[in-house]
Specification:
Elements (H helix, E strand, L loop, with lengths): L1 H8 L5 H9 L2 H17 L6 H25 L19 H18 L11 H13 L12 H16 L3 H17 L5 H20 L3 H17 L6 H4 L10 H10 L3 H15 L2 H9 L12
Helix pairs in contact: 1-3, 2-4, 3-4, 4-5, 4-6, 5-7, 6-8, 7-8, 7-9, 8-10, 9-10, 9-13
Length: 298
């Protein structure tokens, strides 16, 4: 069977060359992913089918990065995002990368399996960060931002920031912090959405007494509070908010403040309202983009 062939391929020494055959056929990719889920439904596998999809995506991201580099270097003129304006026979390098990011979102964010280690790895996230840079997903310039990819990317980053794997959290929060600091044209709704989600993650970290997790989140939270100071009238609603200029003292004092009535009312009525519930809209828009069986767990 086709799926069985590729399941074996990603685990044997010939997997790289075999995978490149798979990579060149866009229609076959979706069939393979669907078949892997069917195998998980109908068979007792040696390992989780989610780990098989994770392995394929890790390899796919590396192949996409290679395609993007070759596309850029083989063309004297570049199209949007610094990529070659010509496309290979099967699809453009940018379209391949975009398809991969949608699949990564489906696995990392939408799949309900609680075991994050089966759905994301440092290798995958590192490759995704490379794709975001190569595709200029968050580039602020004369051309329009790639809105769909930006939303999917935020979903993946927030999921990794919220997860129990601290190495992934460190990578994700570092990228989020950089985006908050550099995206001058970002809409206040975007910043409010990020703050709303990370506020919940920070509360959970404090309740679990996970200081290391909390410490990774706080630079992003602090940057968002400062960025939203005017749009959300922070000084008016958060009279007792510790000074963000106090450095490490802010991180320490905010642990108590975050549970207080003043901050909770502010988040519920100001932050949540401005965020516009972007998470629900995004989930509805992307649900089912992997295949009909993407919610199966093992």
């Amino acid at each position: 069977m086709l799926a069985s062939y590729y399941v074996l391929a990603v685990r044997n020494p010939w997997s790289k060359s075999t995978y490149m055959m798979f990579w060149c056929d866009t229609q076959e990719r979706g069939q393979v992913m669907a078949c892997i889920n069917l195998l998980g439904l109908n068979n007792e596998l040696h390992g989780s089918h989610l780990q098989l999809k994770l392995r394929l995506l890790e390899m796919g991201v590396q192949a996409a990065l290679s395609d993007l580099r070759e596309s850029a270097s083989s063309s004297g003129t570049s199209g949007a995002g610094g990529l070659s304006s010509s496309s290979p026979p099967h699809a453009s390098a940018a379209d391949n990368a975009a398809q991969l990011l949608r699949w990564v979102y489906d696995l990392v964010v939408l799949d309900p399996n609680p075991d994050c280690s089966k759905k994301v790895s440092t290798k995958l996230l590192d490759g995704v960060l490379g794709l975001l840079d190569a595709l200029l997903v968050f580039h602020e310039g004369p051309q329009e931002e790639w809105t769909e990819m930006a939303k999917l990317s935020f979903g993946v980053l927030l999921s990794c920031a919220a997860g129990p794997q601290l190495e992934l959290c460190a990578m994700a929060t570092a990228k989020l912090h950089a985006l908050v600091q550099t995206r001058r044209q970002a809409a206040p709704e975007e910043s409010a959405y990020l703050l709303y989600v990370l506020d919940g993650v920070a509360q959970d970290a404090i309740k679990a007494e996970n200081q290391e997790h909390y410490s990774f989140l706080m630079p992003v939270v602090k940057a968002l509070v400062e960025k939203l100071s005017v749009p959300l009238c922070v000084p008016q609603y958060c009279l007792d908010l510790p000074s963000t200029a106090s450095g490490p003292v802010f991180f320490e004092e905010f642990q108590s403040y975050i549970h207080g009535e003043q901050w909770r009312q502010f988040v519920a009525h100001q932050v949540r309202t401005l965020s516009g519930h972007k998470d629900l809209a995004l989930l509805c828009h992307t649900s089912g983009t992997w295949d009909p069986f993407h919610r199966t767990t093992l």
